[in-house]
TrEMBL record:
This is Imidazolonepropionase. One of its GO terms (molecular function) is imidazolonepropionase activity. Its EC number is 3.5.2.7. Zn(2+) binds at residues 76, 78, 241, 316. PANTHER family: IMIDAZOLONEPROPIONASE, IMIDAZOLONEPROPIONASE-RELATED. Belongs to the metallo-dependent hydrolases superfamily. HutI family. The gene is hutI. Its cofactor is Zn(2+); Fe(3+). Keywords: Cytoplasm, Histidine metabolism, Hydrolase, Iron, Metal-binding, Zinc. N-formimidoyl-L-glutamate binds at residues 148, 318, 320. Catalyzes the hydrolytic cleavage of the carbon-nitrogen bond in imidazolone-5-propanoate to yield N-formimidoyl-L-glutamate. It is the third step in the universal histidine degradation pathway.
């Protein structure tokens, strides 16, 4: 039996567990218990709260000077892919924008070429490096998308790699089919979309969600609606890359299609933000992408929260528009550029991120999985403040120390 007491925790952060995501003003509520302890039996939390002498355990971890939180959840990544695209960095600095690079056959299509060439093992080995870093940075739940195959064989290859990662590493994953991520060179977009729709029956066994890139030059609102409607009919929850660059009404479509999340939303309309407050769709904001694309305008997190919406944050790790595995860095950008409060940020990377991918994580109630991070920080505001470095000192996955 594995039992552990974590004692002398300076402050214990307890995001509120609820049936749905935290919305609007609730996002600024975070219970914090000072001088706390956590007791773990096997893989679960059996006590968390003020220090008491009521428990014995075979192992004690002294968390003096540290704060503790549920392990972080990264609800939007493209972690399985071949190759890299550092050559685009210079192009972008010369003023060639992201969608122009894609239109010229680069960008996502470049990564598609490299992903097709890579074997299952090569993709696994490459993604493993990112996953190990994510765990070291305190992330124990990760969503992983396909979308660099654009054909049956290679989309399934990516999803199989993603599933193998979930088996081999001490973390929880959710897998997303993103077949309609770009239009292959020379293909007709309607015909290609139909091919991806035809794959839904098969990918249902490999993926938890169906996602689409709705953007100028990629898939239109009508095409996205057709895809999402079909996925819904087949019983798959849907997600959408929406209003990243142009305001197409992707957020409204997400809500209409009862999407579990709408992601990016930099250019979301005021009407979309109003509707968000009356829906259970989670806005997954990706400010690292805005930063990395060198844009000035960030998603309007404040407007979404003030309209009563649920906001989450993710890295969007991918080889083109946001090359970082560091969710703590995203917390800093959310503070600086999205003007989110520390409490909102912590809820956005724990409980709301978990709701964005329908997983019971991101809280530390009795009976929850003991996915815990001890942070070398004096308080919870410190992590978005001291940016760019790793503050995670000890990471426990289901009660086992996986990083120290
Ligand atoms: O979420 N916007 C579309 N998809 C990814 C980027 C993928 C890539 O550039 O390789 C995103 O930003
Ligand atoms: Fe993405």
């Amino acid at each position: 039996m594995n039992d552990i007491i974590i004692k002398n925790i300076k402050s214990l952060l307890l995001p509120k567990k609820s049936a749905g995501p935290l919305k609007g003003k609730e996002m600024d509520e975070l219970e914090i218990i000072d001088q706390a302890m956590i007791v773990i039996k096997d893989d679960k939390v059996v006590y968390r709260g003020a220090e008491t002498d009521d428990y014995q355990a075979s192992e004690t971890i002294d968390a003096s000077g540290m704060i503790a939180s549920p392990a972080l959840v990264d609800p939007h990544t493209h972690v399985v892919h071949g190759g890299s695209r550092e050559h685009e960095m210079a192009l972008k600095r010369q003023g060639v924008d992201y969608l122009t690079i894609l239109e010229q056959g680069g960008g996502i299509l470049n990564t598609v070429e490299q992903t097709k060439k890579a074997t299952h093992q090569e993709l696994f080995d490459k993604a493993s490096k990112n996953i190990i870093r994510m765990i070291q940075y305190g992330v124990l739940t990760v969503e992983s998308k396909s979308g660099y195959g654009l054909d049956r064989e290679n989309e399934l290859k990516q999803l199989e790699v993603s599933r193998e990662i979930a088996e081999k590493f001490p973390l929880t994953m959710r897998h997303t089919f993103l077949g309609p991520h770009a239009i292959p060179k020379g293909a007709n977009s309607d015909a290609f979309l139909d091919e991806m729709i035809d794959l839904l029956d098969e990918v249902k066994d490999y993926a938890d969600f169906a996602d689409i890139f709705c953007e100028t030059g990629v898939f239109t609102i009508d095409q996205s609606r057709k895809y999402m409607e079909t996925a819904n009919e087949k019983g798959m929850r849907v997600k959408i890359h929406a209003d990243e660059i142009d305001p197409l009404g992707g957020l409204e479509l997400a809500i209409e299609q009862n999407a579990i999340s709408a992601d990016h939303l930099v250019a979301a309309s005021d009407e979309g933000k109003r509707q968000l407050g009356n829906s259970d769709t989670v806005a997954v904001l990706l400010p690292g992408t805005t930063f990395y694309l060198g844009k000035e305008e960030y998603a309007d997190a404040r407007g979404m929260i003030e309209n009563g919406g649920a906001v989450s944050l993710a890295t969007d790790y991918n080889p083109g528009s946001c090359v970082t595995d560091n969710l703590q860095m995203i917390m800093a950008i959310a503070s600086l550029k999205l003007k989110m409060t520390p409490n909102e940020i912590w809820n956005a990377v724990t409980v709301n991120a978990a709701h964005a991918i329908d997983v019971d994580k991101g809280t530390l109630e009795v009976g929850d999985d003991a996915d815990i991070v001890l942070w070398d920080a004096p308080n919870h505001e410190y992590i978005p403040y001291h940016y760019g470095v790793n503050h995670a000192r000890t990471v426990l996955a289901k009660g086992q120390v996986v990083y120290r």
